[in-house]
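Record format v2
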Amino acid sequence: MGYVLRNCDFALTWVNEELRILRKVDVAIEDGLITNVGNIGSTDLEEINCSGHAVIPGIVNAHTHTPMSLLRGFFDDAELTLWLDRMWTVERELGPDVIALGSELSIIEMIMSGTTSFIDMYHNPDVTADIALRYGLRAALGPTFIDTLRDPTQVENELRNFVNRFRGSRLVVPIINVHSIYAVNKDTLLRAKDLSNELNLPIQIHVSETRDEVYKVKREYGVFPVEYLNSLGLVSSKVQLIHLGWITNWELGIIAGANARVTHAPTSNMKLATAGHFPMRELMDMGVLVTLGTDGPASNNSLDMFREMKMAVLLQRHSYWDVGIKAVHAFKAATLNGYRLLGIDGGCIDKGCVADLVLLDLSSPRLQPVRDDNLLSNIVYSVDGSDVSTVIVNGRIIYDRDRDYYALRDRAVKIGEELNDFIQRFL
Amino acid sequence: MGYVLRNCDFALTWVNEELRILRKVDVAIEDGLITNVGNIGSTDLEEINCSGHAVIPGIVNAHTHTPMSLLRGFFDDAELTLWLDRMWTVERELGPDVIALGSELSIIEMIMSGTTSFIDMYHNPDVTADIALRYGLRAALGPTFIDTLRDPTQVENELRNFVNRFRGSRLVVPIINVHSIYAVNKDTLLRAKDLSNELNLPIQIHVSETRDEVYKVKREYGVFPVEYLNSLGLVSSKVQLIHLGWITNWELGIIAGANARVTHAPTSNMKLATAGHFPMRELMDMGVLVTLGTDGPASNNSLDMFREMKMAVLLQRHSYWDVGIKAVHAFKAATLNGYRLLGIDGGCIDKGCVADLVLLDLSSPRLQPVRDDNLLSNIVYSVDGSDVSTVIVNGRIIYDRDRDYYALRDRAVKIGEELNDFIQRFL
């Protein structure tokens, strides 16, 4: 069982870290993998006519809080600390049924805008994982340590159950979530590290998002946040550090030396006015794996990774006062680097890569004119999610605009109505 | 001849400078004006079913260079000075036929993403005006003084002809364009001012976009750019100042004192790495009319004003390190303030306002959940242009997604192919 993507106008892939644009190619997919790229003769595989389309590697949203679409636009005009406090007021009341609605809504939005994988931090990850599996989307997730809301022993138990249930899944990658230094105590951080070692799981954590956080950590522990995590053994190749808007030069050295992974979430940082600067160029120059995330739909308020790629380039250029960060860097962060972070051979269109792919319909007026030399620009700066015509994950077509658009839209509207019934009491 | 927009889920308008959201209303349009808003009984007007939609005021793109879609993605990764130089290399070779293609492509993109009026700076404005009229879009434009490319006497003659041709048009508003202090000499600036007085026309000019510009003006004239313009009588209620990324406190005072108008173009500033800060809050606090523009499609690379509204909020929050600039400010800049800049009673949904309106289809998953309290957030932070279902300008439906989408798309693709034939020689 498989497909031939026949006669793609363009295919974008990575060869030795460089972007390569292929013209008029076919891509064969079998058993979840790309098995051939080039001019492919007739096969027994199902044919998909890709004329007028570009095929690009799957896109990884490296940091989000999927269920939070339920809070989209709920309390938009606050800075982080106040905003989080308000979010938590609602989040204390959430049951799995409401979380399921939020996650399903976000998964619909992600699929329709070309995301093939997401890394999630929230409660009830089993609920979100089940929905991701139902829709065929790849997801890395797990329970979240956040002492302000949850007992850590309970979270540990959930984690063990979650791992037992999903270890070996083709689409679900278990991870350990730790909200932040400020939302857990030292014992919980050490517990997370021990669990990471014992169960061989990656950890993601928000770090150095605000000046206030840096100030408080420095005052309490005498060191900067990344130094503090490092002192506990929590900066390593198994750790994904999110935000990093306020870090020192020597913290960059710690991150690079430990081969830790980092994620930039520019829109959310701007919307919550955390200011600061994610030092993307220094991180890249030091060889650190840089990825991109939308953050949650309550602080973005979109899950469209094309918009996030553009935002990353724009914000970096604004911060550096130069054009050193280019479209290609954002595209790499969202594709190749995203799959490296997941530990999956993907984000590329080559024999042996996992068949996570997106077809872009190039006929939209906003994408004209289109040529080899401006295709990448158009993808990063002009595409929006509605140009996505087909999404393939693990060799399976999980979204076909012609087939699925109206059904998904109607389901999303229905979910929105149910969420409003829940939200009413907090207004 | 007219319409009733029947049973709109929401209508957004302005009452005494405050946003007002109306529920379940009808809007009557006759002879280019809004004639009734509320629960309207049966009429002889054509009915448009607006259930599931929000009707919002028309959106003004207050600064663009319409034909430059022909250069979309052409030379993306340069800072302003180098970028302009490369643009001008191509632009010296442009004839009206190529300009027509670029303008038509941009006008298609603007209409489809909900722009009802645009203010344009380019050559051959008669060509662009004719296309705007053909599509029914409102446009303020006129020949551009730019001594580095054009003889100013020739530009003046073109201006007089342009005014003679379009004075009194219902859709075309003649203006005087002056590229910038650095692209014209003092005589040209004075000539533009005299023409503005003689012909009673507004002027738009790029000012203080880069540090380099400020530095050069200071070195050559001993004063800052706004001071220099003011010394020539070029800061007044007839002057629209674009960019203002690098201005002093006392220049803000000059602008406010003279009641000059200003336009923020955040995406373009960020993409060209001009850095700086457009002091939106101080300008608003001083009572200055603030508007928004995408700038040209070669430096954005989108003409979607919804994206620009979001970008304005995000960049301002990032710069101020607080959330003082909110969705409502961007929405006002793009609607009510845009029409004030044009000198037209629009940007509102009230009896007597010009009937420039946009219908948003609220069924997209990215807009769920939707309620009174988060509708504006969803519009500014989550809508993209493809949520626009209907665009009405001067009481006429110039875009109906169901009726026009495929024809416009196919025309845009055709234009793209013709533009590529032209661009080839510069690659």
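Chain A touches chain B through 71 residues (CB under 8 Å).
The two ends of chain A are 50 Å apart (CA to CA).
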